Amino acid sequence: MSKTTTSAATAAHPVPFLYRLILNTLEPFFAAAGAIMVFRDPGSYLSTMTRHSIAYPAHQGDAAAFVYTQLGGGWLYFAFVEAVVLRTYPNDTRLWRYLFMGMLLSDAAYAHGCAQALGGWAVWADLTLWTAEDWTVFWTTAPPLLARICFVLGVGVDFSSKKSVDKKRN
Fold first, then answer.
1. For residue range 109-146, what is the model confidence (pLDDT) as tens digits?
2. Where in the sequence is the domain holding 73, given as residue range(s)?
3. Do residues 51 and 118 make contact, with C-beta atoms less than 8 angstroms apart?
4. What residue ranges in the chain does DSSP mark as E strands?
5. Keywords on this record (predicted)?
6. Which of 34, 43, 68, 153 is most exposed, with minimal Cβ within 10 Å?
7. CA 105, CA 114: separation in Å to the nearest integer?
8. Would you call 78 exposed, middle or buried from its count of C-beta atoms within 10 A (0-12, 13-18, 19+)?
């Protein structure tokens, strides 16, 4: 294959830059930071998610620590998939789509958990009650969530198998 053919093939990346920026760079960083937070200071995480309405029970902290370890493990999985797996297969849009479908299941549970932490969707949706921490959680969660939804729906992405396979070969 000639050098110009290879250059032309790699110039037209099947995954648009904005998706790669949000899902290969920003979110893995946020996910890893969230994992570190729940591993090192679960009380701070609990306080952030509940607007300081629930204190981490110091006397029972060790008994509940496993839940935060599991949560952190889930975030490490997101960070690994987005920073390593999807970079290893940058042209396989079908793989990206399938992984994002699974991640959206986790996103749905996470979003519902955020609302539960505050007392339900009505309380969560009242923006006049939002703290700086609520806005931080929102702005570190919403863009990757929206990017995954748009990607799965095919906004700006071509899922044709021929293009995906041809790109992998180049």
1. 999 999 999 999 999 999 999 999 999 999 999 999 99
2. 14-169
3. yes
4. none
5. Membrane, Transmembrane, Transmembrane helix
6. 153
7. 14
8. buried
Question: For the chain, how many structural domains are there in total?
Answer: 1
Decide if 153 is inside a domain. Answer: yes
Give dist(CA 20, CA 72) in Å, integer: 23
Please enumerate in sequence order all residues whose Cβ is within 8 A of that of 67, keeping only pairs 6 or more positions apart, or say none.
none
Segment 53-95, tens digit of pLDDT: 888 877 665 778 889 999 999 999 999 999 999 999 999 999 9
Within 60-92, where are the H helices? 61-80, 86-88
Distance between CA atoms of 60 and 56, rounded to whole angstroms? 8
Instruction: Please tell me the distance from the alpha carbon of residue 163 to that of residue 158, in angstroms, as a whole number.
Output: 8
Let me know: does 15 contact 156? Beta carbons within 8 Å: no
CB-based burial of residue 141 (10 Å sphere; 0-12 exposed, 13-18 middle, 19+ buried)?
Answer: middle
pTM comes to 0.83
